[in-house]
Model the fold of this input.
Amino acid sequence: MAQLVHPGISHKKSDLDRMKAMVEAGEEPWASSFEKFKEQGSASYNYNVNGNLTITTLDNAADSRFLNDGYAAYHNALMWYITGDERHAQKCVEIFNAWVNLTSTGGIALSQGRGPWKMCEGAEIIKHTYDGWSEEDQKKFGDMLVYPGWSGTETPTGSTTFYWGVYQGDPSRHGNQGLFAYRSLMAMGIFLDNEIIYERALRYLKGLPHRADDLPYPSGPPVTEPLTTGNEYYEEFRQVSIGNEIEDYGYNEVIENYIYENGQCQESSRDQTHTVVGVLIMNCISEMAWNQGDDLYGHLDNRQLLGLEFTMRYNLSWEHAYSDQPEPWEPTVESGEYIQRTDRSGRWRSLKINPYVANNLEPENFERGTNTLMPIYEMNLGHYKDRMMLPSEDYKWMQRGFDVMTEEIGVEDGKNAVDYPGWGGLKFRRVSPGDPVSGYDEDGLPMYQMNVVPGSIEAENFDHFALSGEGKVYHDVDDSNTSGEYRTDEGVDIAVCSEGGYQVESLEDGEWVTYTVQVPATSLYNIAIRYASASAGGEIKFSFSNEEVTEEITVPNGVGYSTGLDDWQDLAIANDVILRQGVQPMKISISGTSDSFVLNSISIEDGSPHECEGGLAAVDASDRFVDGVNYSYYEGTWDNLPDFEQLSPAATDIADEIGLIEGVDGEQYALVFEGHFSVPINGTYTFYTESADGSRLLVDGVEVVNNDGVHDAVEASGEVCLDEGYHQIVVEYFHNAGDQALAVMYAGPTVSKQVLSETYATGACGNEPVETPDNLEEGISYVYYEGQWNSLPDFSTLTPVEAGNLDQISLSPSRVDNYFAMTFDGYINIEEEADYTFYVSSDDGSRLYIDDMEVVDHDGLHGAEDERSGTICLNPGYHHLYIEYFEATGGNSISVMYEGGSVAKQLISEVYTGPAHEKIAQVITFPEFPKVVVGDDDFDPGATVDSGRPLSYTSSNPSVATIVEGKIHVVSNGVSIITASQEGSWEYAPVETSQELNVYSVAGCELPWTMPTVAVKNQTYEFTSEPIDISCVSSASIYLKLLATSGLTADDFVKVSYQVDGGEVLAMLESTGADSNGEFSSGEIKGNNVRVIISALSSTPNGTYQMTDISVKEYTIEEPVLSSDPEASGVGVYPNPASETMTMNINKGVYSAYRIFTIHGQVMKEGKIAPSSSQEILDVSTFPQGVYVLKLYGGQAPLSLKVLK
Done:
């Protein structure tokens, strides 16, 4: 004898019937959900089973092999029931039988609870709907779940499986982990038809003590000690032990302990993901309980709904504003909206709500608002909204979340299958509060069964409701079943019927009852009742899907009808009523005289034949439909209908209906009417035209009536088979002379011959072409961004990475596979006015606009297999096309297609855009550095760029200086080239420029002498000072900048002397024209930068150096400076300064390329250096006079040298 309802975990048989019927009917959201659901690999009968009979142990019960097989078992079971394909059922049996040798599963309660739930969901469906799974194998599978066997009095020792890993929940962890365990526990109890196991889960969540015939729950309270691992959102403790003072203590899984009285979740201070998961698991358990007749959903005044609303308000308001919540909601202790409380495990104390992930408080772990697209809505709205019919304010935030999800991804998907049931639009969308039943078994359990028409329905078997059905599945003016013979806990009055079974009696004015029925096909049906009447005056009315299909029909009494309460008669209520395909509530309403009749049954049978083969397919209704019909007026003389395609109308407009146009009463004209009409049902329809002179009528382009020629008013007719829905009608008419007449009529199933008055004209398109930029070219422009999003960002707030033009819409410019976004901007050329449908498939989200109007919204996280579309009317010409796209993780793709008018569905390939974006040049100003000594503080390099964008710096010699947080950090003495760069953007071109940094070792390295501002002609200057320890500067030179003034002659010279340890040495001046004594003529000096080399090279004696004299002829002498010596790097550049050419000596194979920049970063010259080259001749003849930077590439680090022209 069954103790529980079967099938009855998440789906009763009537639920399965509803899924199947609505998929067959093509009703939404069942149809779209099923199309996506069946594409999963886990829903295929070709699924490769992971389990086998050699597997006896799972060290971790959440082993992916068992999890995946569980998903496949559940999904194939649903596929079996919906499609009837036995291969799916056989796959389920193969899965169940593959795991029967399992004798040991390991892991915490969370792991043990993850797998059995969906495995049992599938097993429950197959066990009670398919006869190909033997009872012996069913027992083996059930025994495997509870190995070594179930007991309510003893716990086993040794190896155990799932039941013994979940039966105590988890008293030491967050609530969601124990809830995973209890969800599987209840599922196992139902599958095993074990009421004690079932109630173990049910009672624990309610906070009740264990049954007397079952093992106790964990005791308490816990003993804890503080930890230092908490944060600003929660304090953390270590659970030292669990006390035994209180039996059945009740930990975090108990509803009251998991969802506080304000709606706050026990895990709200941990993170938002686990909060959503935990509450949703409770909902899953509550749906199972409801199917068994227990209201866990409503426990503590709908506490679960309160938790859902709290969580969704916090998360949804982060990214979505509402009139009553314009800013993100921040529940705080101070506002009285957040509770600081230590949870029942004793391990955590909530302080404030946490938008991050537990202790991971980095920006990348900010997850508030990221869980709003999870499949959590259909089940809960199906219960609280559609089943319980609560006020909308109670589920406001769940409804808002559902609306956001619907807008972004369409229907609930199956993501996170281990956490969520998924595919709620298929599984949990309801059509009525109650569930259909065929009766009740001997234990009073409802026998869920869909009422299918044609057929008979016993009046007493109105829909079942787990609680009182008053106001949900019936309304009775008193709250008691006065007869008390059947369904005694309901208010409907049911008595034993004199012809067998039961009857519904005491029917009073205003009462009603509902029956959920399945209509297998849209068709004509006859409705009748089996009744007996005591008096006249009672009335009955039928409604389907809240639409009245009959009027209030008087139930007669007297001769020819029922004459007493034992005189049972059949009464036809209505014939040839159109009922729509699908599952729907049938409502019977009572009015008129009370207690005048009793009801035994209702019969719904097929009505008159109406179906026809090969019907013209219906077309979609257009948003541009308006009442009336379009017409065109022509002038001319004809004896027959002309070829209107060769004519131009004299006028066009919209008329109220097809017929003569007021004001058009002359001779010799023609009219063409075009519009749409709808027919309520498939069938053969007859059309008539009565005209003088000729007329012709076409439906969907097919000629139905030909009434052509010059004649008096004559009626002609024709028949056509039409499918239910909208069809196009065209009527052509001409008048030659004499009387004028034109009328159009039709007749068909449920339609007597009448004027075709309800027609729809197509309103003006209104979307005119836009102005385009000059010089349009083929292609489309794009802007590329990088960042992490779960939905399309506000691009106006983002900084692009790059921009450009493409030949086609593609993701080819993307630099990474994940976390990027793009916008596309261009124009399409439309050839003809029509409604155009645009299709976008993308991975992840996208949105398409035409002329700044949103046409396709395909936002959110999803794969490319999901195509979304939208339709817009466009006039001929260019129209602006704009597309937004983002990619999170996984695959990335976008495809855009369109169709309309004479254009078949195809990729948008012909796109146009303006000239490619030219990037703006930037200019960096980089002043020379002041004298820098080892030990100086870090300092700003001082460069600026005219765009105002941020600069970055690099140092060519990190041993001398590095860049730390944008500042120069001195490391040691020496020389480094500091390069300031700006990487550019989609708007600006990149730029860089360099400045030489000289770092002195100590103050003694500074040159202590003072040079004269101007040296007089033929005057020798002697300078003596303390010796300078040049050796403290590695590979250094002294530069004397000698600037020519005027009046120079060929024999003018410069002479620089210095002494080494008291011995005078003539200066070594780098110049091709130098004579042996180092004197230079004015022509060789060029008035710019003569260098004196004083270095530690072997060609120069080591020691201390002292300047002795300088002899010049009218030169301005600048302060000597220290600089890096290119010769120390194996590079020599001469002459420097140069006039026409510059010779660069290099070591072979060290450098591979060079560039010469202005001091503002403009590239003046660049080239390659062959590996075998040791010398390059550089032409600088076109360079303006000035200072330049020669940069060499290919070595361990780029080398920058100052050169002069």
